[in-house]
Amino acid sequence: MNYSFEPIGVIRSPYREKFGIPRQPSLVSAARMRLELLPPYDQPDCVRGLEAFSHVWIHFVFHQTMDRGWQPLVRPPRLGGNAKVGVFASRSTHRPNPLGLSLVELVSVSCDNGVALELAGADLLDGTPVLDIKPYIPFVEARPDAVGGFVDGPPPLLRVEWSETARSHLAELSPPKDFILLVEQVLAQDPRPAYQDDPERIYGVSLYRYNVRFGIAGGVARVLEILPAAQ
Ligand code: SAM
């Protein structure tokens, strides 16, 4: 049996590469994105009534990594990068069917010029194809009594500091609203791979059209520079 699906929409996101995207939705509330519906779904009738919901499930394709296949065992970052669990006990992107599912805040629905949803807190790469949208139903789906396995709470956060150079770059570049909060929330998540702890290393994360360069030492992420991203 084979099934084929076509995208009903595409994500426009500040996350321009995988590195730096939070590992789950809702960890970075300052990440604002837009889900643009594609023809023939870009008609107001398809979203009529959706604006009454505060959150939606987004079903999507891990399109950037789908050609890398899958393994029965994976190493979740939350277990330090060494211990293995089954692929179906994880949220790994490398799955037999490369499908993702994220619960995100629905900020607004716009039908002015095509149909688009404004979303907050999503963990989605720019250009992600979306297969479906469903409203979140709290009385059925909110389960405060649920057990979270090896993911038993939010990850510890890093403190974030700005260098004088980075501050001067901010003043010159006039980045989008909430950019500072976005950078701070992204870096606080500690984007490094689980096994890396090199205080000398300089990393770069792409947000909007900027390359945010930073280092991490002693539980503190320090923003070093904000550069225009390479085209
Ligand atoms: N909450 C989702 C789920 O369980 O389906 C995602 C979990 S997965 C660990 C989250 C990661 O997916 C992000 O950190 C990002 O690196 C990656 N990601 C997001 N959009 C992607 C895309 N379109 N293609 C490949 N990887 C993507």
Task: Explain how this protein is built.
The protein is mainly beta and 231 residues long. The protein has 2 domains: 9-141, YaeB-like (Elongation Factor Tu (Ef-tu), domain 3, Beta Barrel); 159-228, RelE-like (YaeB-like fold). It has 3 helices and 12 strands. The chain has helices at residues 138-141, 164-173, 179-188; strands spanning 9-12, 32-37, 55-61, 73-74, 85-86, 99-110, 116-120, 129-135, 159-162, 203-207, 210-217, 220-228. The strands form 3 sheets. A 6-stranded antiparallel beta barrel has the order 1-2-7-6-3-8. A 4-stranded mixed sheet has the order 9-12-11-10. The longest helix has 10 residues, at 164-173. The chain is globular. It starts with 8 loop residues before the first strand and ends with a strand. The relative contact order is 0.21. The model has no long low-confidence stretch (mean pLDDT 95). The site of S-adenosylmethionine (SAM) has 19 residues, from β6.
Supply database-style keywords.
Elongation Factor Tu (Ef-tu), domain 3; mainly beta; binds S-adenosylmethionine; 31% strand; six-stranded antiparallel beta barrel; 231 residues; YaeB-like fold
Note the run of SSEs as H and E.
EEEEEEEEHEHHEEE
Number of helices: 3
CATH C-level name of the largest domain: Mainly Beta
Strand order of the largest sheet: 1-2-7-6-3-8
Share in β-strands: 25-35%
Structural class from helices and strands?
mainly beta
Q: Please indicate the count of domains.
A: 2
Q: Segments where pLDDT lies below 50 for 5+ residues?
A: none
- Rounded mean pLDDT is 95
* CATH arch. level architecture of the largest domain: Beta Barrel
- Helicity range: 10-25%
Shape descriptor reads: globular
Named once each, the bound ligands are: S-adenosylmethionine
Rg over C-alpha atoms, rounded to the nearest angstrom: 19 Å
Query: Whole-Å distance between the termini?
Result: 42 Å
User: What is the β-strand count?
Assistant: 12
The CATH topology annotation of the largest domain reads as Elongation Factor Tu (Ef-tu), domain 3
For the biggest sheet, the summary is: 6 strands, antiparallel, barrel
What is the CATH superfamily of the largest domain? YaeB-like
